[in-house]
């Protein structure tokens, strides 16, 4: 049960929606994400791996659910994966996800990105070169 949206609770929520499903040589849902919005709502999502490059990361799915609910500001986000041995891992967002989080709302530079049960730096620390560049001349 989520009571405060702590890193541990978000990790547990994301882990609860991990349900890998194989279709041919593709694996759906082997990475899951959970996020807490600035308004206190929770959203989850899973990755979809496709052969044509049209798939998306778990963070994208969770953010899509958030935007569908007309929320844009992410307070905290996490992604998890479970190994074949059953060991749960927290995954840092890929570069595409980091940029996606940033572009959803400028305030998301302050989003806490959960990297472990005790570490959740702001997105700005993981995406330091985020400002539009100045002209050269």
TrEMBL record:
Similarity remark: Belongs to the cytidine and deoxycytidylate deaminase family.
InterPro entries noted in UniProt: APOBEC/CMP_deaminase_Zn-bd, Cyt/Deoxycyt_deaminase, Cytidine_deaminase-like
PANTHER family registered for this protein in UniProt: CYTIDINE DEAMINASE (PTHR11644)
The protein's name: Cytidine deaminase
Lineage top rank: taxon: Bacteria
Gene3D superfamilies: Cytidine Deaminase, domain 2 (3.40.140.10)
GO molecular function: cytidine deaminase activity; zinc ion binding
Organism: Streptomyces zhaozhouensis
Annotated Gene Ontology cellular component terms: cytosol
